Amino acid sequence: MSNELIRNIDKLHTTEMGVERIKRNLGLTNCDAVEWCRTRIMNKSAAIERQGKNWYVRIDGCVITVNAASYTIITVHKEK
């Protein structure tokens, strides 16, 4: 699993608005949204693919969208 996103997992971050969006979309309350995403991205069963400027990580019925240049978590949503 020597993927570029995994190698740069320490750079993963989001904005204050991103934290609120992630928590709202997933119904999370008292947790660190970035750490929640980091744990899932590092999970061996996560399906990681890059499309254009973003990484898409599919795991546990969710899709985590990460900007490939800045490692900013853009959003997380439940798969339809």
Give an account of the 3D structure.
- There is one protein chain.
- The protein is α+β, with helices and mostly antiparallel strands.
- It has one domain: Thrombin, subunit H (Beta Barrel).
- 31% of the residues lie in helices and 29% in strands.
- The protein has three helices and four strands.
- The protein has a four-stranded antiparallel sheet with strand order 1-2-3-4.
- The longest helix has 11 residues.
- The mean pLDDT is 94.
Secondary structure topology:
Blueprint: H1 4-7, H2 16-26, H3 33-42, E1 47-51, E2 54-59, E3 62-67, E4 73-78
Antiparallel strand pairs: 1-2, 2-3, 3-4
Q: Which labels suit this protein?
A:
80 residues, alpha+beta, Thrombin, subunit H
CATH architecture: Beta Barrel
Given as residue ranges, the uncertain stretches (5+ residues, pLDDT < 50) are: none
Separate helix tally: 3
Largest sheet: 4 strands, antiparallel
Strand content: 25-35%
Determine the fraction of residues in helical runs and give it as a percent range: 25-40%
Shape: globular
Q: What does the average pLDDT come to?
A: 94
Q: The CATH topology is what?
A: Thrombin, subunit H
Rg, Cα atoms, Å: 11 Å
As for the number of domains, it is 1
Beginning-to-end CA distance, first to last residue: 27 Å
Derived from helix and strand composition plus strand pairing, the structural class reads alpha+beta
- What string gives the helices and strands in order? HHHEEEE
